[in-house]
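ok so i was messing around last nite and threw this chain in just to see what happens. nothing serious, just curious
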Amino acid sequence: MNRGIWLYGGVPCESCRVPIPVEIEKTICANCDFWLSYRLEVVQDPYLHIMDENYVQFDIGEVLSDSYTGFRGFGGSTFYITLPNGKKIQTSNLWHKGTLPEHLRKDWPIKPSVLGKHIEERVV
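result:
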């Protein structure tokens, strides 16, 4: 791979302006591609996707029975979440998606001021 393309050239990402190697025939970088694709999921069902005050995104996974022994988000820790409409839910399958890049925060479909501080983990 020609490292010079990354350091001294390439086409800038249309979203974040990071250089993309000329050999890659995309107009956005992999990071922006992930977040812009994820944004479509958030728009379709905002109540399955939540964000805390630090712009960290979480997905509420499918409801699993207590006898389920496979993978669960956060190792199966139980979280109690209050949604913006006041509905309270409990999940033991919450998945961390990462921190939303700063340049995408302004137009994100859910806002942290609505959902921040509504995630509590109860230690039993």
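not much to say yet. Residues 42 and 77 are 23 Å apart (CA to CA).
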